């Protein structure tokens, strides 16, 4: 990782996480490197065809999920089981 990276919390399905860890070990890359590569390749496909389409699709997916924080803002430490 370079010094210009940003930390993010993502939640993966257990089986996907297991497969990702195996792939990372076999390729001598970190899980973060593999996730960065996958996200970059996915977004570049959108950006080349329509720069705003990935963002619009992301918002549409969030709307369909029906989640609502009702204005509540959490701190990072509040999102983890203690």
Task: Give a written overview of the molecule.
The protein has a domain of 51 residues. With 82 residues, the chain is mainly alpha-helical.
Summarize the structure.
This protein is mainly α and 82 residues long. The chain is built from 3 helices and no strands.
Helix amount = 55-70%
Mean pLDDT: 82
Q: The biggest beta sheet, please?
A: none
Give the termini distance in whole angstroms. 28 Å
> What is the N-to-C order of secondary-structure elements (H for helix, E for strand)?
HHH
Report the sheet-strand fraction.
under 5%
Low-confidence stretches: none
Number of helices: 3
What's the count of strands? Answer: 0
**Which structural category do the helix and sheet elements fall into?**
mainly alpha
Rg, alpha carbons = 16 Å
Shape: extended
Provide the fold topology:
Elements: H1 14-27, H2 31-49, H3 53-65
Question: Which terms summarize this structure?
Answer:
3 helices, mainly alpha, 82 residues, extended
